[in-house]
Amino acid sequence: MRTESFQQVPSARSGAAVAVAAVDLVKVYGVGETAVRALDGVTVSFARARFTAIMGPSGSGKSTLMHCLAGLDQATSGQALLGGTDLTVLPDRVLTRVRRERVGFVFQSFNLLPQLTARQNITLPLDLAGRRPDPARFDDLVTALGLGDRLGHRPSELSGGQQQRVALARALVAEPDVVFADEPTGALDSRTGAEVLELLRGSVRQFGQTVVMVTHDPGAAAYADRVVVLADGRIAGEIDSPDPRSVTEALRRLAVPA
Amino acid sequence: MILRTQLSALARRPARALLTGMALTIAACAVFGTALSHQVVRQVAVERLSQTPATTDLVVTATPTLDTLRKVRAVPGVAEAVGRVDGYVELERISSAYLQVNADPGSGPLAKVRLTRGRYPSAPHELAVTRRAADRLKLPVGTVVSLRLDAPDTSDPDAPRRSVRATVTGLVEAADDGLEAAYTTDAFAAQLAVVDRWRQIDVRVAPGVSLDAVRAGLAAVVDSDASDSIVTGAQARVREQKETLVDIDVVFVAMSLFVVLAVIAAALVTASTFRIVFAQRLRQLALLRAVGADRRVLARALAAEGALTGMVAGVLGVLAASALGLLVPLVLRGFGIDVPRPGFPVGTAVAVVAGTVLVTMLTVLAPAFAAARVAPLEALRTASTTAGRRGIGGVRAVVGALLAGGAVLSGAVAAASLNGSRSPGQGTMVLMLVLCSFVLAFLALIALGPVVVRPVLAVVSWPLRQRGATGRLAASGVGAAPRRAAAVSTVVALGVALIALTLVVGATTQAAADRQAASVAPEDFNVVADDGAVVPDSVIQAARARAELTAVVPYRTATVRVGASRSDVMATDLDLRQLGARGPQPEPRPASEPGQPQARPATDAPDTVGSRRVAMDQAVARAAGVRSGDSVTIMLGQRTLDVRVAVILDATPLGAGIIVSPTDLDQLGVPRGPTGLLADAARPGEQGRTAAYQALAAISPADQGLRLAVLADQRDQTREETDVLILVLLALISLTVAVAVVGVGITAALSVVERVRESGLLRAVGMSRGGLTAMLTTEAALYGVLGATLGVLLGLPYAAMSIKTFDSTVPVEIPFGQLAATVAVLTALTALAGLLPARRAARLSPMEALATDG
Ligand SMILES: Nc1ncnc2c1ncn2[C@@H]1O[C@H](COP(=O)(O)OP(=O)(O)OP(=O)(O)O)[C@@H](O)[C@H]1O
Ligand SMILES: [Mg+2]
Predict the structure, then answer these.
(1) What is the pLDDT of residues B679-706, one digit of tens each?
(2) Do the domain assignments include residue B424?
(3) Whose C-alpha in A143, B128, B283, B484 is 20 to 30 A from the C-alpha of B501?
(4) Chain A residue with the nearest C-alpha to that of B763
(5) A100 touches chain B (CB under 8 A)
């Protein structure tokens, strides 16, 4: 557990390859008087096959950072590097492919299309790419997520936790370079939340998946290998091998309310 | 309070309110526009098409003659008297052409024409013609033209042909420019047109003279009941106006029927729109209910919102129609057509707005009450779409089933009475049954829509679903809201069913007319010798030698009497086997019951005519009381011949009553020389026809007593007339279709709005901008395909039945190409209607879309 000024952050832990990185990333919403600097020069990198949590107070820019790194939103300046490709200079057409093939995203809520079944929702990115899912991987995923008997149901017939697991399966099915999850447990009770977190960690351990997750919950952050703390659109510090207590303590020390 | 919340919601999103009322705006615009154009057309009719000039004081209508005119002019107090002639004269040309003949002073208060070039005729043998006559009949100023004077008794074959020559001295402009007309002095006009074609004498009374005195004087001249035959100019004008206006009003009543259809379509669209709009606010409404809002208050607030929407739509529609009313005359003026600007009938405008509000209230009630019944718990639902229920309620199912049953029943009764024996007057009843069945079927479609839509959607979207994720998503998007899909595609179906009906009836009529034309006008050209003359052998040889002509068939005609009938019919020895291959092959006829010989088309006849074996027109056969196989006596003068009727035709070439063999005509004493000649153009198309025409004109100059009729042109003309009628009907129906397409656009726009988060999600998981646009556009197009398919399925049986009502033997022609084109056009239009909202949705970045408050 260590805090650093943001100049020293770029290198990844334990020499692992970098999956995603932000370099001096700036995102400004609006113009003139009402302009909001959501990201104010963020430089950070996320190692491959690691589980990283992003924490920070509300409005600190966590979601914005993830959106920029996932190619969902256009940064104002700086670089958003996905496997060495700078997403900020790509046209929408290419970004669409990136989203489809190299990134998985799990939102806090509204992850699924109501008119599609669970199975159709899971294979949606592959369908859009005109690919068929690898049956072995699909079965593995579905079994690991415990969705076997729910594949024919529509989202309205699934519980919140089940919906979130379907969303996770969709994020994982295309074997993306990185999975982003924005408060995936925000709307779930603690037991269901714990299930989803286990699954995320499992995908890192079992499949070597890279996962970046935003959370407000120190307990959830403790599932990660590393915690990056954001405040006012800048990196405020980071915590290696976190556990709930160390996270809470670190946040308090940074005067950052969780 | 609640009303205020709702209205402020409306005020915050005026675009949404406009969208909701758009279909009604179009309907209101159509209604008010029809009222305005009715007003303008009446005005134009009264001002321009009146036969009697406004300066006319008295009108003498008692079958005047030139002599009457002279006497009228002599009556003291008459300042000017103009005889009006209403007749035709034939030009002395190889192919027949007619000029309408009018008498007019050419200048002065009673003139109805204005000279635009040259000089107005002042002496006999001078004519002024309209521009159309000058152009069409090639009569520029200075032309000398021969006019055929019909002998009063044309049946006398030995009467000498008389003709006069006249010089075109000027061009005139008349109120009705659509005629090929000539104007001249009353004396010459009277010579050209036969005596009894005088219509009336317009009289202008000298200033200061009492009208009654002149009237009395005139009465003495015409020596008939004065009160009838002499009226004031004003009275005459009123009478003429009444006649014209009645005609105009009938046309507008017919037009209003189609406007009413459009209004019904708009009401259906609006009801569906309100349902969608209220469903989108379901959570807000549920929240209001959760905090204690009363259900009835809520419903009243929603209904009030509807009324306001209706008012805005009505006012906009009226304004739009008025704007068009100002614009159209300007545009028409650009084309040289002078049309007065419509006024602004305030009463009508208020009525239209009030009517719109009323219709809106009617459409909003059911959705408002349904929405107000929302359970407070709905507020807590997180599901973002408001797909609504998928099926239909029990009551609705029962009502729908009853309606469908009624439709099938009345259709079956109609079909049964079509097959059974017919009695006069039954046709109307059957037609009413068919109409009733159609209305019931449409109502059933409205009631059962959501249930019907799903299987149809499954079928029509099958190829789409094979094509990839975008198509599959579009199909499931439409399928997820079957009630919405049903509501909007039902309106499309109404328009398409009417189009299909028109197309099928039109194609069948056209085909029947073609068969008729192929019989009556079996070849392109007909050269006829004048009465008593023959077609010289040299002309026949020349015609056969010309490369431009083919299938040259000379024939003879004679006027005969058949059996006991007293009237003359034309007999011809035209050899049917020699006719060019024209028209369709013998039509497939329903097997006729034994003992009831059916009339057959001429194409069946060729080999049946022989010595003493004749073919007979069905009307002639009926008049003579003859059936196929009977013997009958033909008489010409003192000679008679007994023949057998080999076949009865439902239409005969050249309008002949009876077709016989040449030997039969010989036996009746008809001279050997042919009296006519048929020929076809050797090459197809307009060019071939022109070449053939010139060839025939060259080998048979007018002074040989030959006349050339272009049968092909007559054929084309009937075709054109049917085509125009079909086009007019389609144009009127297109109003309903336009409302339906707008309905699809509105539904697409509202769906896109409510599903913006869905769009964001799709973009987030990797759907491209183009893919999203394509998906949403395809959804709109699917509404069109659904509606068009339902419409065609609904329209076809009713088209067949209504055709059978008029003529049970006519084979129904289904214009598959045109129907396919209709479906394609509707698909394209609805896709277009969906394109705009689709592009708007695709422009949003995924994050903006996801962040939208669902
Ligand atoms: N579309 C937008 N337009 C304007 N400002 C925005 C927009 N989206 C985010 N912001 C602003 O950017 C800043 C960062 O927002 P962001 O959503 O990244 O915060 P966050 O750290 O995810 O907060 P939370 O924990 O509440 O989700 C906030 O001040 C927010 O108000
Ligand atoms: Mg956030």
Answers:
(1) 888 777 777 777 888 788 777 766 667 7
(2) no
(3) B484
(4) A96
(5) yes
Same domain, B649 and B574: yes
Residue B639's DSSP bridge partners are B636
Residue B419 lies in a domain: no
Which among A231, A239, A238 is positioned nearest to A61, based on CA atoms? A231
Is the CB of B766 less than 8 angstroms away from the CB of A93?
Answer: no
- Asked if A90 reaches chain B (Cβ–Cβ under 8 Å), the answer is no
Q: Which domains does chain A have, with CATH numbers?
A: 48-74+89-253 (3.40.50.300)
Global pTM value? 0.74
| Closest chain B residue to the Cα of A174, Cα to Cα | B765
Cβ–Cβ of B762/A101 closer than 8 Å? no
Q: Is the pLDDT of residue A212 over 90?
A: yes
Q: Which residues are within 8 A (CB) of B698 and not within 5 positions of it... i.e. 6 or more apart?
A: none
Q: Is B239 helix (H, G, I), strand (E, B) or coil?
A: helix
What's the pLDDT tens digit per position in A163-206?
A: 888 988 888 888 888 999 988 887 778 888 888 898 889 889 88
CA–CA distance from A220 to each of A63, A189, A242, A243 (Å)? 17, 12, 10, 9
- Interface mutation target, options A69, A128, A159, A172, chain B, most CBs of B under 10 Å: A128
Task: Report the amino acid identity of residue A49.
Answer: A
Are A73 and B847 in contact (CB < 8 Å)? yes
- Count of CB atoms within 10 A of residue B243's CB? 12
- Give the pair of three-digit tokens for residue A10: 């770029």
B383 contacts in chain A (CB < 8 Å): 114, 155-156
Q: Which long-range contacts (CB under 8 A, 24 or more apart) does B122-126 make?
A: B122/B185, B123/B185, B123/B188, B124/B185, B124/B187, B124/B188, B124/B191, B125/B164, B125/B165, B125/B166, B125/B167, B125/B188, B126/B166, B126/B167, B126/B169, B126/B184, B126/B185, B126/B188
User: Is residue B495 over pLDDT 50?
Assistant: yes
Kindly state the DSSP code that residue A131 receives in the 8-state scheme.
Answer: -
Domains contained in chain B, number: 4
Q: What is the pLDDT of residue B476?
A: 84
Interface residue of B765, B773, B853 to substitute, partner A, most A CBs within 10 Å: B765
CA distance A76 to chain B (A): 14
Residues B361 and B454 in one domain: no
pLDDT in tens, B798-808: 888 888 877 76
From ligand 2's centre to the CA of A187, what distance in Å?
13
> Ligand 1 pocket check: which of A62, A65, A228 to mutate, most ligand atoms within 8 Å of Cβ?
A62
Whether B182 and B250 share a structural domain: no
Q: Which residue has the higher pLDDT, B391 or B305?
A: B305
Q: Give the helix ranges, DSSP H, for chain A.
A: 62-69, 92-101, 118-122, 124-129, 135-144, 160-173, 190-207, 218-221, 244-253
Q: What is the reported pLDDT for A3?
A: 38
Nearest C-alpha neighbor of A113 from the set B468, B760, B284, B852? B760
Structural domain boundaries, residue B546: 520-711
Q: Are A35 and A204 in contact (CB under 8 A)?
A: no
Contacts (Cβ under 8 Å, ≥6 apart) of B102: B84, B85, B86, B112, B113, B181, B182, B183, B184, B189
The string over B668-698, giving b where at least 16 C-beta atoms fall within 10 Å of a residue's C-beta and e elsewhere, is: bebeeebbbbbbbbbeeeeebbebbbebbbe
How many Cα atoms within 13 Å fall on the side-chain side of residue A245? 0
Structural domain includes residue B427 = no
Pairing of β A234-240 and β A226-231? antiparallel
Rounded distance between C-alpha atoms, residue B572 and residue B579, angstroms: 14
**Domain match, B574 and B466 both:** no
Point out the ligand 1 atom lying closest to the alpha carbon of residue A30: 4
